[in-house]
Amino acid sequence: MIIARILGTVVSTQKDSRLVGKKLLIVRPLNLDGSDASGFTVAVDTVGAGFNERVLVVAGSSARLAEGMKDAPIDAAIVGVIDTIDADES
Amino acid sequence: MQLGRVIGTVVATMKNQSLEGRKLLIIQSLDARLEPQGNPLVALDSVGAGRGELIFWCRGKEASFPFRREDTPTDCTVIAIVDSPAHVNNAYGEGK
Predict the structure, then answer these.
(1) Quick check: is A86 in a domain?
(2) Number of structural domains in chain A
(3) Which DSSP helix (H) or strand (E) runs through A44?
(4) Is A6 part of any domain?
(5) How many CB atoms lie within 10 A of CB B42?
């Protein structure tokens, strides 16, 4: 899982039927110190995360194991909203 | 599977239901010389690993196998604790 920040939303009308009703969010990976890392990903929200929140993003086929995502064609899912991070500098 | 070290913890109250009660660890992947490689990741704990410990971890869908594999969304899980760095023998000689 990676730590990421929610940057915005994506609206798509014409999409796979298994994505209907799912919230699509744009996330940016973060470094441990909270600074932005590079790249963007579109991830499906499964927990009701909001704008600018730090979240946990699962990538790959494991994303399908998130609640309500069975057989959905996704490779990134938001599975948690982070309260605190406590880490040594690496 | 990769070697790594637990360098911290993450607290997330609002999370996928199947992650309830699971410990979230921040791990730093290590190379054969036990030097950091790549960015730190958040991993689910399956063995009771603690901060500072040398571990190895598994990526991909297989990371959900220690748990209820059909509904545990994780792509990174700590699956074992290395007894001591001295047990890491490699092409560069003894581990540190």
Answers:
(1) no
(2) 1
(3) strand A41-45
(4) yes
(5) 25
| CA-based nearest distance A70→chain B, Å | 9
SS3 A64: helix
A30-60 tens-digit pLDDT: 999 889 999 999 999 999 999 999 999 999 9
Which domain, by its residues, includes A68? 2-81
Using CB atoms, which residue from A60, A79, A90 is nearest to B61? A60
Residues of B with CB under 8 A from a CB of A: 7-19, 24, 26, 28, 36, 39-44, 51, 60-61, 63-64, 69-76
Residues of A within 8 A of B16 (CB-CB) are 46-47, 66-67, 79-80
Annotated domain spans of chain B:
2-52+70-84
* CATH code (residue A51): 2.40.50.220
CATH class given for the domain over B2-52+70-84: mainly beta
A46 inside domain: yes
**pLDDT tens-place string over residues B4-22:** 999 999 999 988 888 999 9
Assess if residue A89 is contained within a domain: no
pLDDT of B91 strictly over 70: no
pTM of the model: 0.88
Both structure tokens of A13: 């009308």
- Look at B75 and A59 and tell me if their CB atoms are within 8 Å: yes
Determine the Cα–Cα distance for residues B26 and B3; give it in Å rounded to an integer.
Answer: 13
Secondary structure tally for chain B: helices H, strands E: 0, 6
